[in-house]
Amino acid sequence: MTGWWGIRCVWLRYFDVYRKSLFYSVVTTFVEPTLYLIAFGFGLGGIIQTVHVGDIEVSYRQFIFAGIVGQTILFQAFFEAAYGSFIRMYYQRVFQAIATTPITLSEVLWAELIWDASKATFASSAVLVIGTFMGDFNPIGAIIALPLCFACSFIFVGLGLFVAARSRTIEEISYPQYLLIFPMFLFCGIFFPMESLPKVLQWIAWALPLTSVVSLVRTLTLGLPFQIQALPILLIWLLVLIPWSRRAMTRRLIK
Amino acid sequence: MNCISGFYPATSGSVSILDTDVYSHPKHARMHLGVCAQEDTLDSDFTVLDQMVRYGTYFRVPVKEGRSRSLALLERFGLDGRRNDLVEQLSGGMRRRLQVARALVSQPKVLILDEPTTGLDPEVRRILWDVIAEERSRQVAVLLSTHYMEEAERLCDFVAILHQGRILDCASPSDLIAKHIGTGEVEEEIRKGVRWKRPPNLEDVYLKLTGSHLEQTA
């Protein structure tokens, strides 16, 4: 009951909305990561010259640019999936309208996940391009990082869809936003090496998915040491969140 | 209604549309099904015309074909002047008409209309009644739910009276009236001291069937 044709049809709906209001879309997708790049890359990068990770020394600007790739995935994926899908499910009833045509709800939800992940990948590609042109990223690593970004987006997209499905009102999305998304943003190694944190916080941060994303992006773009635990951690989050979010949204819609 | 479209699974029994089980083969079954839900499900991200064409693509109607069908439908529904407007610029009656028009883009053989005329002014209601009658004459099976007995009596070949999830009776309007009320005139006190004699109608049947039911449960 799930086929590519249906998923593609719905994905194109999202893409057409994005394309139709291109100016709005570009501003909301690309401005935020660019602002972070300027503020932290140049602002903070001006004070802190270099960072040591293990035996390797990189400039703080390189370090933060790679972190902002992870931050972009986190914010773009979560916010589009949480607020966007809540609006489409609750206010616009787009899911309900399409799922009474020959396209099934399963296909609609796959399209939602794939679209949200695509949008997060567009945004993170902007950071990868800027980082590469600034000479901060290894170009080949940045290209390989792109499919990695797409795959990792599904974790935060799944989280967003799950939150949307479980929130009774749109305001309730703020709870996970403040209690989970912002802590991840601050403590998962975007701004400073994980070694600076107390051991307990390091363990907690490693259990959250963003630390692994940031670690892998830095391995690819800056050549920092490969931390093998990142792969199983991401895989577990992915395999849990995708089916959970789909099931939660299906239950929300089919009472 | 959500079970009939295959959106909800049936708790018991099954639903087939043109001999295809809608829950086990939703893609195939819904190819011939047009649905106008009770709530507003219009796509507020697109203009009137765009969303009709887009809705057609969900039924594999090619864009060019969908566009010409949509333009014809918008004219039939008196909406052709609004084709480039967004949904939020439309009045409640226009939205309702658009939602019914959208359900027809795929040229369904079975059309489900869930309370299509609730809250509409008499003029808009007439437009929808005409469209329903037209679709019926084209051999489209129309399943209509309504609270207006006058509407059911006027449009339907068969009427099922539903109360608290049960079908109390199902027959043609005239048979239902003859069976439950009789053929003679009924007298009703519409205000204190004002009595009215009129032929019996489907509303009398509804009140009789559901009223007696209420007494039983009370």
> Quaternary state, please?
heterodimer
> What order do the helices and strands of chain B follow?
EEHEHHHEHEHEEHEEH
Largest sheet of chain B: 3 strands, parallel
Q: Please state the second-level CATH architecture of the largest domain in chain B.
A: 3-Layer(aba) Sandwich
Low-confidence stretches of chain A: none
Question: How much of the residues of chain B is beta strand, in percent?
Answer: 15-25%
- Overall structural class of chain A, as computed from helix and strand content, comes to mainly alpha
Strand segment tally of chain B: 9
Tally of structural domains of chain A: 1
Characterise the protein shown here:
The complex is a heterodimer of chains A (255) and B (218). With 255 residues, chain A is mainly alpha-helical. Chain A has one domain. Chain A is 78% helix and 3% strand. Chain A is built from ten helices and two strands, in the order ααββαααααααα. Chain A starts with a helix and ends with a helix. The mean pLDDT of chain A is 94. In chain B, a hairpin with a 2-residue loop joins strand 6 and strand 7. In chain B, the strands form four sheets. In chain B, strands 3-4-5 form a three-stranded parallel β-sheet, covered by helices on one side. In chain B, strands 1-2 form a two-stranded antiparallel sheet. A two-stranded antiparallel sheet of chain B has the order 6-7. The C terminus of chain B is likely disordered. Chain B has two domains: 132 residues, Rossmann fold; 52 residues, no CATH class. Chain B has 218 residues and is α/β, with parallel strands linked by helices. The chains are: A mainly alpha (255), B alpha/beta (218).
Question: What's the helix and strand layout?
Answer:
The complex is a heterodimer of chains A (255) and B (218).
Chain A: H1 4-20, H2 22-47, E1 50-53, E2 56-59, H3 60-91, H4 94-98, H5 105-133, H6 139-166, H7 174-187, H8 199-207, H9 209-222, H10 230-253
Antiparallel strand pairs in A: 1-2
Chain B: E1 16-17, E2 20-21, H1 26-29, E3 33-36, H2 48-57, H3 63-76, H4 92-104, E4 110-114, H5 122-137, E5 141-145, H6 149-155, E6 159-163, E7 166-171, H7 173-180, E8 186-191, E9 194-198, H8 202-217
Parallel strand pairs in B: 3-4, 4-5
Antiparallel strand pairs in B: 1-2, 6-7, 8-9
Helix pairs in contact in B: 2-3, 2-4, 7-8
